[in-house]
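Team,

Forwarding the record for the chain on the shared tracking sheet. I've put the sequence and predicted structure together so nobody has to dig through attachments.
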Amino acid sequence: MTANAEIVRIFLSPGHNFFGHHGKPPGDHPAISVSEASCVAGKGLEGDRFFDFKPGKFPEGYDGQVTFFAWETYEDVCRSLDVTTRDVSVFRRNVVTRGLDLNALAGRDFEIQGVQFRGMKEAAPCEWMNTAFAPGALTALKGRGGLRARVLTDGIIRVTSDSP
């Protein structure tokens, strides 16, 4: 299935701020906005913290090699929580799309800009969202935290649209 979606932003981060930090303070690794990212089959996005990440229970490859997030969700959460000062980067998702139903892609293969992905499951929000974004963010994001996916083919994805 070819997904006709705009890519509004792409983020890479060299390290984990929340993953593995339960009971500890968050890290301070930036989410770096880039205009394009190199996707490597079975590994993820070059330069990202989850690139070639293989914890013991996922020897065949981590299910969150790349994470997607909907711009529409960001706008809705900003509106519902009356937030005007937080950038979409605080959600720590890699690819921010517009015009794509991410929940419908769980369990399905799809293509964006010639790169094949397999939607694995929701990128469920965690308790850190209330700190990173705003109080109430965890509840506001339930069921729409984004999509964890595996990279099936090599290729480059690029930002195709400016965020408003």
